[in-house]
Amino acid sequence: MAPDSPDQPDEYRDELPTDLDVTGYVGPYQFPDNSRRRIPGVMYLVVAAGCLAVWLAYGDGGVLVNDGFLLAAVGLALVGLYNIAAGWRLAARETDALAAAARTVGFAVGHASAQLSWRGLRSRPTWRILLYSADEPPTKRGLVLVDGVDTSVVAHFVEDNPEDWSEYD
Prior knowledge:
Elements (H helix, E strand, L loop, with lengths): L37 H21 L8 H19 L8 H12 L3 E11 L4 E10 L6 E8 L5 E8 L9
Antiparallel strand pairs: 1-2, 2-3, 3-4
Helix pairs in contact: 1-2
């Protein structure tokens, strides 16, 4: 086929992996597990070991194998170790985090939303839960941070809702 035909695009277009593409998914969305970071971490360590082995075998001042192989091995090993250390298993799902947040705020929850974020040097998964009270219009709102590994509440903040809803009455 010619590159300019309608069936053959003339340029490559990047696509999301199927487990991250939510457009065709029906039902509750499952966030990918952070423990997938361990797979590239192991791959980095294997390549680092290969670079170190080549440097040890042939790195005696040669033209093709020089101290860059050692630097690459150290850099790849550091990145690989970090990926393994940051590969937390996401044990708390969105519904678990919403339940923990609702228990924490002290009012009946109406609308709520959850966002997965990471905190700390080892990128521990943390749910950010924004909650509004169940009354109409909501009189209270709260923000709760729930740990994604053990469902403990990291921090929370509750206040009277400062938004003015009077124009919608």
